[in-house]
Every structure is written in C-alpha cells, then in structure tokens.
Amino acid sequence: MGHSRINISALAITSCLLWSTAFAGVKIGLQYATPLQFAGTRFFIAGLLVFPLAYRINPRYFSIVRNNLKMILLFAFLQTFLQYTMFYTGINMIPGAVAAIVIGSQPFFIALVANFMMPGDRMTLVKFLVILFGIMGVALVILGKDPQSATGHIALAGVLLMLGINVLSGFTNVLVAREKGMIPPLVISSASMIIGGAGLFLFSLPLEGFHFGTRPPIYFISLTWLSLLSAVAISIWIILLKRPGIVVSDLNMWKFLIPLFGAVFSWILLPGEQPQVVTIVGMIIITSALVVSNLVQKKNRSFIQEKA
Q1: Long-range interactions of 155-161: CB distance < 8 A, separation 24+
Q2: How does DSSP classify residue 58?
Q3: pTM for this one?
Q4: Cα 179 from Cα 194, distance rounded (Å)
Q5: Model confidence pLDDT, tens digit, residues 286-302
C-alpha cells in the first residue's frame, strides 16, 4: 500500500512538472503561430504520439472507440476543444499573472465538484484550509514573478472564462474518475486529443485563417516539446484518475506545484526573470500545504485501517 501511494505521488509530481514547462513553450510557439491553430496542432500531434502505445496495449482500439464514442467525444469536447478555446480567448482579456492566479485555484474547484459528484470525496475543514493556503501560495508566486501585471484593469469576461475553465476541469476529472474500468486510459487519452485537436484546428480556420510558411527551428522545438508533454502528462493523469481508490480532490492537490515549478523554469529559461522574496514565501506556503495534506491523508488511512 505504501509503495502504491509513493508511486501515485511520483506520477502526479511528474505530470505537474511536465505541465509547468508548458508556459515557456507556449510563449515561444505563439510568436510564430495563431493561438487556436497552435493549440489544435499541439494536441492532434500529442494524440498521435499516444496512439501506437494505446493500440499495442489495446488491439481492439478502434472498436473500443466506436463502442464508447459518445463518452470520448464528450471528453474531447470538454477537455481539449472547449477548455483551450476558453483559455486562449480569456488570456487575451486579462493580465497573464491574474490568469495564472485564477487557474492556480483549480484544485479548489475540482474538490468542490467532487464533493457533489463523487461519493466518498467530501470537502473537509482540513482539506478546505489546505486548499486555501495553496491558493495563497500560488498568488504570491505569480505576483512575485510579475507584480505590476496584477494592478491593471481586469476584464470581467476574461476572469469568468478562467473560472469557467476551473469548473470545467473539475467536471472532466470527475467524469473520468467515475468511468473506472469502462475505457482504457490510453485509448481515451489518445482518441480525445486527436479528435479535440483536429476540431480545434478546424475551428481556428475561419477565425484565424490558415497560416503556413517558413518558421524557425525554435518553433518546431516548442511544438514538439509541448506535444510530448501533453501526451505523457495527460495520459499519466487519466491513468491515475482511473485507478481504484483514487480520491479526485486529493490527487488534484498536486496541481498547486504547477505554478511553483513554472516559476523555477521561468527563472532558468527566460531572460530577465529572477526570484523575489515574496515568491520564495509563496513556494514555502505551497510546499507546506502539500506536506500537511499528505500527512492528513496518511493519518486518515491509518485510522481507517486500524478500525478495519
């Protein structure tokens, strides 16, 4: 049991570490491509990367997709198409730091949705306090990176879109967790990214036009990396969500690490960015919240096992 929990934590951290590198990759790629077209290309390639492994493990890949097409289409629409349409639309309306703070509160919304939709995944006082401290830490990390950006005018529509993404993420996480054993994780990961990415690309054409031309190697490097990290991170996350005994809100606590790692990668990769005291304080708060969360979970499991 202990090794199982360690493996889950290690996989969750790996996913969050990969996701945290996306900020720099997207920033580079968007210098040479339109937002929705770039996102669509990224996820279509990511789905194709997962496909060979998904097909090898599940030779009935196409019949599985056909038999579960409604669920896969729903997941592709919510997780890839709608979420990234909202994200790239909303981020143009508000400062990047504000967007990151709002998105950083995602574990709270996932816990809230799970509280109503997942039996046995209830919001406790300790969990609420841990989430609250995590959000505070995220705010400090992002504000420490770009303190001026949060002082400008904030478009209400942009904030609402970002909050909508958080609710949407909560719903899709619960949706996958409730379908345990129904669809193999790699099949739903591959098929939903291929379908969602293709849909996003086609949707971008009348809005953004078709942009094809010579691009520098750095564009293809960023596109390749973003596609790889999406393929690996999303597949790992879906596998974890579908594991027996996984509590959705507890698993998503690890997502507080994304802005934490994102800040570190920004300091390393982006010129002109360096750590500030307020950012370090935010990191300490996030780390402390995660440690408390895991200690409480461990104590609760021990108590349950003793009673059993």
Answers
A1: 155/93, 155/94, 157/90, 157/93, 158/90, 158/91, 158/92, 158/93, 158/94, 158/98, 158/99, 159/90, 159/94, 159/98, 159/102, 160/90, 161/86, 161/87, 161/89, 161/90, 161/93
A2: -
A3: 0.76
A4: 20
A5: 777 767 766 666 665 55
